[in-house]
Amino acid sequence: MSQTVIEPVSTAVRDENSPLLEIRDLEVGFQTQHGVVPAVRGVNLTLYPGQTLAIVGESGSGKTTTAQAIINLLANTGTVTAGQILFEGRDLTTLKPKEMQDVRGRLIGYVPQDPMSNLNPVWNIGFQVEEAIRANGGAMSRKAAKLRTIEVLKEAGLSDAEDRLKQFPHQFSGGMRQRVLIGIGLSARPKLLIADEPTSALDVTVQRQILDHLATLTRDYGTSVLFITHDLGLAAERAEQLVVMYKGKVVESGPSQEILANPQHPYTQRLVAAAPSLASRRIQSAKHSVAVDTDVSAAGANDQVLVNRAIEREQAAPAKDLISVQGISKMYRIRTKGFKYNELLAVNDVSFGIKKGTTTALVGESGSGKSTVAKLILQLESITSGQIEFDGQDVAGLKGADLLKFRRRVQPVFQDPYGSLDPQYNVGNTIAEPLLAHKVGTAKERQARVRELLDQVSLPWASRHRYPSELSGGQRQRIAIARALALKPDVLVLDEAVSALDVLVQGQVLNLLTELQTELDLTYLFITHDLAVVRLVADNVCVMQQGRIVEAATTDEVFDNPRQSYTQELLAAIPGGNFEFGR
Amino acid sequence: MLWYTGKRLLQMIPVFFGATFLIYFMVFSLPGDPIAALFGDRQPAPGVIEQLRVQYHLDQPFIVQYFIYIGGFFHGDLGTTYSGRAVSDVMAAAFPITARLALLALFFESVAGILVGLVAGLRKGKLFDASALVVSLLLISVPTFVIGFILQYVFAVKLGWARTTVSSEAPLSELILPAIVLASVSFAYIVRLTRASVSENLGADFVRTATAKGLSRRRVVTVHVLRNSLVPVVTFLGVDLGSLMVGAIVTEGIFNINGVGGTVYKAIKLGEGPTVVSFIAVMVVIFVLANLLVDLLYAALDPRIRYAK
């Protein structure tokens, strides 16, 4: 029998030093039409009581599948095909559904990734928290359950919990919803909390608050945390132990500091090199070292090139602004009840200028008005007051042919590479569409241009027949960039153009953008919430808060010497900012 | 919510006038002379026809006829049929029967449809699901009168569990078989709607989170899957109530029920403007009210939908 092979797990020897969770040679497969596709291929990890362990990897690496396999939250088609998941010595993979139900919530809590979709929209918050408490706390009077609900929500950081019990998820902000989900996950004081990318959908400052709070709670309760993230900096900051996963396998594991200082596996090395928060630190240091390792480099290793380009650009930049924004404001009227309106000043007296061939970054949290500024410049919304000049011409009142001419010269690239491409259009048609819309060239000339553009964004000519659903996020964003470049514009407005991408892909796209900038003498307006990315590409930075620009300076000034407390806060919130990384 | 309901009720006024006007116009433009048709091949005295024309205002222009009718409508006088019966009497006889039939059908199709759809959605790809899909496809593609005759033959003629025809009082017990026939097609649609909705919601993030909370499977399904899945089903039921009232014609014919369908059919053939318009007007009101009810149910099922504006 197999008993002789498996190490005996006796309950007697279990003490403080025996692991709480031990995953041995775990394999998970998903049933598809083409047979079983393995998602997790032999994962081993060990977590001790009170410890925090982070699984790091890009999307598709199997990190979430591993986490979900622990309490069997896999989709119907997914099954554990081999290996063991030992929790306090008990193999969870052999539990009956009823026994697993007992483990979930009570022994192992779970905080999901996306706070927007993980609360049921049709039940109020109080109901959804109370439900978890009742399921794990045994018989309980209604009054006791309600009091406990308020207690749980207060602990999770909702100070006005009593008043908000009857409210529905859509009446809560993303951060508040995540607090509710953390409250639910910790409500039964589980021994282990699985936190699957708990903050990746949130702003950096909110992310920091929530993770700090989560750390305090789990420390107070002595809860072990299994933290799943794609963000190496975040993992290093929050966990003592790291497990790096790649294509379903663990490629490296050990103490966080050690891995970051001295990554062994080539994939980990690439991750460390590509993490923008780390690379940004090296923009100055790269001046001394020579970057040669172009093969594994994403953004990081080309810093020398980037720095040189930046210097060139600075020297070559003409004195006159290509885009000049003077005191623009945008007022939205929000209908409340009946005929009443609330006025919302989304953009408040914003002024800045962008010189030809440079990159200006607009930074701020969601709701700061940065995207509205982009829409105003693109003439997708009308300004309430102020003036926008492009190449010396007032663009506010442009109509008809003049507006089309303006649009040819200023093109947007949007955040979501999934939503901004028409799924029914193949790549060639997508890229050719602006040419067709502006009646440029003959069919043959247009085809030649598509070829040239695909070449510029480093995609093969054969990919013109493919459809967006067959492409990865990075490839889609390349196509969106190619489409924007089709009309040979002077300016690209990049609205969170790399925020939805994995670090490595993000690095590649940023690199492509900088190359294109020198090649085609492009001007970029770069809108992002990610200061780490800003450091890599921007010459000037405008920090926005509540519709105003609170700080505007060159990138170096902002990073080395932030004058506003808000900017300092944003900088401090960059995960992993305080770590030293090796290469 | 009150404001919204009031506004929706006010909207019924233009709908009512628009619908009645259009129907009246259509009946008026039907070819043939209704009075002459009354007498068939026999030629009555010329004076008699003239007298009948004046009595039914058929000598007046269309627009005057319409306003005479509307004027009467608000005095509770719906006019008379060409055979001399008050339209209000005809309606009082026909509507309760059809209403009973339609509501019974609505009850059957919603209870059975949601139940079968839920189980099929939960066991997607299994035998039950496959059979439910085949059966629903059959019910949708086979015409109602074929289903009606088959059920009538099996349950009434062969097994003798029900009467082949319904008596003139049409008590509920006699309407069960006709209601099942009437409900069959909608039942199939509800099964498919519920199944699709349930299987979609089963994959929702909040359902996984509910499972992770440690809830039982039963509670996850009833509390977190079913309620979210009902929104599209409720829309369908609201629209369907209207078509059940009208679509009962075939079923009423098979089981010889003296309901709305048969009466309207006869009235249209005879060109009896007042009868047709009165029935249609009531149906329009029922349709609008049913849809209002659906919208209010929406808000109850899904709190994100607010009707403040």
From TrEMBL, chain A:
GO MF: ATP binding
Domain ABC transporter span(s) in chain numbering: 23-272, 323-571
Keyword Nucleotide-binding: yes
Nucleotide-binding is among the record's keywords: yes
PROSITE patterns: ABC_TRANSPORTER_1, ABC_TRANSPORTER_2
Keyword vocabulary terms for this entry: ATP-binding, Nucleotide-binding, Transport
Pfam families linked: ABC_tran (PF00005), oligo_HPY (PF08352)
Family: Belongs to the ABC transporter superfamily.
Protein known as: ABC transporter ATP-binding protein
Organism: Cryobacterium algoricola
From TrEMBL, chain B:
Keyword presence, Transmembrane helix: yes
Chief location: membrane
Residue span(s) of domain ABC transmembrane type-1: 95-298
PROSITE patterns in the record: ABC_TM1 (PS50928)
Cellular component terms per the entry's GO annotation: plasma membrane
Membrane association type: Multi-pass membrane protein
Transmembrane portions of the chain: 12-30, 97-120, 132-155, 175-191, 225-250, 276-301
Annotated family: Belongs to the binding-protein-dependent transport system permease family.
PANTHER family noted in UniProt: DIPEPTIDE TRANSPORT SYSTEM PERMEASE PROTEIN DPPB-RELATED, DIPEPTIDE-TRANSPORT INTEGRAL MEMBRANE PROTEIN ABC TRANSPORTER DPPB-RELATED
Protein known as: ABC transporter permease
Organism, as annotated: Cryobacterium zhongshanensis
Lineage: Bacteria, Bacillati, Actinomycetota, Actinomycetes, Micrococcales
